[in-house]
Fold:
Amino acid sequence: MKNAQRPIIALGIQLVRHSLLDKVVSFAEKNNIPLVTTLLSKSAIDETHPQFMGVFAGKMSRAEISDYVENSDCLLVLGAYISDMDTGVYSAQVDPTKVVHATDDRLRVSRHIYEKVGFTDFVNAVTSLSFDKAFAATYPRVADLPAPGMGDDSAALTVSALFARLAPMITAKTVVIADPGDALFGAIDLPTKDGKDFIACGYYASLGFAVPAAIGVAAADSSLRPIVLVGDGAFQMTGMELSVAARYGYEPIVIVLNNDGYLTERLILEGEFNDITPWHYANLPAVIGCGHGQVVQTNGEFSEALTDAIARRGQFTLIEAKLARMDSSDALRRLGEAMHQLVSK
Structure:
């Protein structure tokens, strides 16, 4: 770090678990070092922090973030396990000789691995360092990004507008639970302020995670309102667990991104294997005998449905968001383009 000009600290969830996050953030503030998180560690920090650049996940990240991280001369990764999801399915181009990666399992400095270095000891040692110089002061920040476009109320609903309109509805009393797919990828830039604001199955990327997870959240803390983001294919795997929510009076808000199949796979390699049987998702409450269902097709309808759902208590709400078949978030589009080039060779 003393030889670096553009160091970056990637914050991992283990910093939170070991009560080291505040110390690392204070160290970054003192030395004006930019901060990112990995996808699996999203919500490890208040993402409104002025030095927060965003989530780094290879090609899924915005170009200015991935370019800055990949060209850093010292990437300090603290408490983050790195998986295929964290690297944008291995689309990240990071020079391993510029990386210091510490977890509670081991320490890697460049290409050297040290098995018996205590994680807390290492973090304490690093954050006690002082420097005789100032690091680069110019780097991309989330706070400098233009506000995402919400689109006209009468326009057909898009994934981008959906996330833009969802963002201001997130409060300290809501928990966003994202299923793998565009429900997760589109949430990369969704601002979160606390560790409990955002939950996802990023490590195993198990489709169908989000609806059962919402039941777990409701059972663990009845004061929190789960907002579930789930694709139509994933919902068909476990969506009927809403029957359990009805049984116990839980009140998750489930937003089904209905784009007629497995969009992530379509963008990588199209074929009939990406098709699913279409359901009338908003009619599910009639089957269960509880809850409220609604179909939305425009930006305005989505905002109205979400506002109504938050006000409605004592039952679950299912919002079926009708989307164009190939509409996607910018993050998924970038990932799909990179992966399509690989499988097309």
About this structure: The first strand starts at residue 7 and ends at 11. The chain has two domains: 7-144, 159-343. The first helix runs from residue 13 to 17. The chain has a mean pLDDT of 93.
